[in-house]
Structure formats: C-alpha cells, structure tokens
Amino acid sequence: MQFIEEMTDGRLTLGAGTLYGALTTLEKKGWIEPSGEDDNRRKVYRITGEGKAIAVRERERLEKITRVASDIIGGAGL
User: Which of 12, 16, 21, 66 has its CA 20 to 30 A from that of 73?
Assistant: First the structure.
C-alpha cells in the first residue's frame, strides 16, 4: 500500500481490502504467484509469464490512449 502511494505521489491510495482482493484476483487468473515471505513475514509475489504479457498489452493500450489524447489537445508539450 505504501509503495503504491509513494510511486503515485499520493494520488492513489489503496485500502487493505482492495489490495488483498486485487492480489487474490491476480493470483486466481495466474498473473502472479506467491514467492515466499520477506523478513517481516509479508507475502511476496512475482509476476508470471502470462502476467507479464498481460501487463505489456495493457501498457501498450494506455500508451495508445495517451497518444490519442495528446493529438486531441495538441501535443504532449502542453
């Protein structure tokens, strides 16, 4: 939860229920898998090959949306 908040400069915060629900869903879809626990006994996950492929496609989709938005508003330099 802290990582997400830090990486988004506080624009996105996740509650524990939201985070654990998302992790459960991602694991059920086979996009992540448990890889043990860290020193603080927190569960650690790693992305699977399928999960990485999905993430790459999603990044490409978002990049396309960003390009379209930039074209609409007159370029990314604004």
Answer: 12
